[in-house]
Amino acid sequence: MSAQPVPPVPSSAVPQNAVAAAPERNVVDQAPKGEVVLKITDLCVRFPSDEGPVNAVQDLTYEARLGRTLAIVGESGSGKSVSSMAVLGLHNPKRSSITGSILLDGTEIVGADEATLRKLRSNTAAMIFQDPLSALHPFYKVGNQIAEAYLAHNSVSKDVARKRAVEMLELVGIPNPQRRAKQFPHEFSGGMRQRAMIALGLVNNPKLLIADEPTTALDVTVQAQILDLVKSLQREFGSAVILITHDLGVVAEVSDDILVMYAGRAVERGLAKDVLARPQHPYTHALLQSLPSASEDSDQLQTIKGTPPSLVNLPSGCSFHPRCTARDRVPGDACATVLPDLRVSSPGRQIRCHLANPEQVLAQEGAS
């Protein structure tokens, strides 16, 4: 996928070196329809280390709605998986510090006891992990693992649960599901294991499905099949889907909304089609510029200079400013000294940036 060029803003726009006026912590305008099943507010996740606390997620706020797919994107270490694991209470409370609020179908997850979390896992929310071979138990047959998840939340016999497991394997497109249900995970191919993980995640018809890099280890053909499967199952079940990925091509294919994260914070939010066509944050723009394009004749890919910062010692001000090519467009040293708030930049869009007119600046950056 190649990003569409960002059209220039008329010359009557605010001067390009102006700082954004009075950032406000507002919700995104024109909120998409659909019942809110997950509401995260000011989430912070920290882990202790010998060098100091690791600030994996900071001040994260977003919603997931039934019938819509939210993509959370960013480089490795940006906090995508950590924040989503917190939704299911998968962090060890003795080795992590979690503050803020996570409302999952009306239930507060932060501080919830293990009994409450067990009732919600698989029943209200489920997760498809990046490596199904590691996530599935190697000593138990695939059908038994799916049946066990169904038995945990339904008062049915084992025979009924096994039939349900076979039905789910058939639903996700695994051939000869009765025979496959009696096999072990290592007897499945990579694509079939991922389908089995999807069957395991959807066996209890959860309202929220979190897919953590579900196509990373698969070839292109199988990737397309898995993405089509997730889309069709979402239409059938009406669930909300959170897709964690670094692949913007996948985002363009299946996502309705997008949340871009950098160094543990949200830096841009909006409708996927708008963000991909007209990025407003320099980091999002840089991610799109680094994609290979079939329409451009270039021998070298564009890259984002530098590396993501240490989550133990984050840079002062905007965490992206050491790598940002647009930082000289902001007067003074605001980028290096003042952390920008996540503010409404246009209807349906939020960015965490000091630029008052980001689209004009980024258009000039792309043309240079």
Commentary on this structure:
This protein has one domain: Rossmann fold, CATH 3.40.50.300. The protein is globular. The chain contains 13 helices and 12 strands. With 368 residues, the chain is an alpha/beta fold. Helix 4 packs across helix 5 and helix 7 runs parallel beside helix 8. The two termini are 21 Å apart.
Mean pLDDT: 86
Fraction in helix? 25-40%
CATH class: Alpha Beta
Element-level helix/strand string: EEEHEEHEHHHHHEHEHEEHHHEEH
Number of helices: 13
SS elements, strand count = 12
N-end to C-end Cα span: 21 Å
Strand order of the largest sheet: 6-7-8-3-9-10-12-11
Query: What is the CATH architecture descriptor?
Result: 3-Layer(aba) Sandwich
**Fold-level CATH name:** Rossmann fold
Give the low-confidence spans. 1-19, 21-31
Strand content: 15-25%
CATH H level, superfamily name: P-loop containing nucleotide triphosphate hydrolases
**What best-fitting shape do the alpha-carbon axes yield?**
globular
Radius of gyration: 22 Å
Q: Briefly, what is this?
A:
This protein has 13 helices and 12 strands. The chain is an alpha/beta fold and 368 residues long. The chain has an 8-stranded mixed beta sheet, sandwiched between helices. It has a 4-stranded antiparallel beta sheet with strand order 2-1-4-5, with helices on one face.
Summarize this structure as a short list of keywords or feature phrases.
single chain; 368 residues; alpha/beta; Rossmann fold; eight-stranded mixed sheet; four-stranded antiparallel sheet; 13 helices; 20% strand; disordered N terminus
